[in-house]
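Hi U.,

Before I forget, here's the chain from the pilot set. I'm dumping it here mostly so it's searchable later in email.
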Amino acid sequence: MPQSHIIGTSLLGIVPVGLSSTYHNLKKQSLHLPTALKIGVGLVTGVAVTSKFITLQMSQDNLRLILGSTLATSAIVMLKKA
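Structure:
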């Protein structure tokens, strides 16, 4: 499977989780809606720009390197905090 499909599939898999979390947080009134909307707009804009201008024009090897580096960095940060 091409790396761009792997990334797209992973991002689409996050959508139901995000919607469910948003619903429950709204129901419990445990979020600051204006801030959440600003973050959401920023994320949607960033993903749209990245997918259009970067992801589809990069080589498979570079995408794998970036994704692997991001995951490894996240894992290291999480292990240091544990």
